[in-house]
Amino acid sequence: MRVGMTIFCQNAEDWDRYEAEERGEQVPDRPATSDRQIFLEDVSLAVQADSLGFDTVWTIEHHFTPYTMVTNPLQLLTYIAGVTKKVDLGTMVVVLPWHNPVRVAEDVVMLDALLGGRRVVLGVGRGLGRREFAGLNVDQNEARGRFDENIQVLRDLLRDGQIKSFDGQFYNIQDLRLRPQPAYDLSDNLYCAAGSPETMEVIANAGVKPMVIPNTDLETSLAGIRRYTELREQAGFGPVDTRLALWTYCAPTVDEARGPAEKYMACYADTALRHYELLGDHLSKLKGYEGYGQRSAAMRQDPGIFARGFTGGHPWGTPEMIIERSKQLAEAFGTSELTFVFRYGGMPLDLAQKSMELFAKEVLPELKKLNPAPLRSAAAAL
Questions:
Q1: How far from chain centre, in Å, is Cα 358?
Q2: Are 382 and 331 a contacting pair, CB within 8 Å?
């Protein structure tokens, strides 16, 4: 099994200032810790991961808030390609309704051409943040339709670099050929974040493989991926591997791990709630987001459920604890790659570095030995 790490570039401690500014209150113009410092520190973790033997470095796309500040993941990964030597690269995710799919395909093919044998995995998603859709001037009610068309266009372009004819509501493409041409079929490197019932249905019917980036507890995520597998098999596709993102903190003893894990995972959960406005009622009113609306209603009844899902479900603790929990999750989700988030929620750089170093020394070799079976409709329980 492959093991990756991801950089989030969060300025998590800036949320109070950001939200006060959003309300029109008088606050300092800039955060206490500069956004650029966060970028440089997280890139240093990516370089460190390359030297420590991780297989992949990933990053994410978000806009306008301190939640994560990577506005163009393929651009950041191109830079990381230049300062690393061995790691493959991946997005978790490029949010398709915010982009022209032809441009996304071009960027992926160009980056792949420059990697010298290393590969890029394109994880994509539909998007959830109301502020982001508004700031990018995209009607969130159109997200489902735009996503559906983008997936079809991307899959065809990544497969052989051309489209004969595509007629959709948002895109009309005739006799298009990419340059540079893809050197091989890149469509097998296309994964999609399966975060809602609506998205699962689309990608299962298209045969696109799932990427699990938990925005709820892992039990709920597993139930969703089981449903995806059933839909995929009904559409005539066989067993499938997944990519699974997990949050971690590794320390020599449980006592040394508990404090940072609980503190920074809870802080991360708070940043996600605030960025996505998951305690609001607007998601239930948006076309294609009814599933998220139901989850928001449950969270309003118990706002702490989100943070408990992270600290109670994700692998943290001693190396032995992390190995055991990661093995359980990899087998349950049928994953071919676990991707770990080492820095989140305002965690100081030195803590993330120590955690990742111990992880690389004692956990990484054991996880690479795993070979979970691909998912079938009768997936194992956690």
A1: 24
A2: no
Task: Determine if the peptide bond prior to 83 is cis (ω within 30°).
Answer: no
CA distances from 108 to 209, 257, 260 (A): 17, 38, 36
pLDDT at 115 over 80: yes
- Residue 380 in any domain: the answer is no
Q: If residue 198 lies in a helix (H) or strand (E), which one and from where to where?
A: helix 197-206
Spatial CA neighbour of 352 closest among 365, 344, 342, 362: 342
**Does residue 381 form part of some domain?**
no
pLDDT tens, residue by residue, 211-220:
998 766 788 8
Cα 29 from Cα 18, distance rounded (Å): 9
Q: Is the separation of the CB atoms in 191 and 243 below 8 Å?
A: yes
Determine, yes or no, domain membership for 210: yes
Residue 377 lies in a domain: no
For residue 75, the domain's CATH number is 3.20.20.30
DSSP state of 182: P
SS3 366: helix
Domain extent at residue 138: 2-368
Interior/surface letters 133-164, b for 16+ CB within 10 angstroms, e for the rest: beeeebebeebbbbbbbbbbbbbbbbbebebe
Q: Is the preceding omega at residue 180 within 30 degrees of 0, hence cis? A: yes
Number of structural domains found in the chain: 1
In whole angstroms, what is the distance from residue 311 CA to residue 358 CA?
20
pTM of the model: 0.94
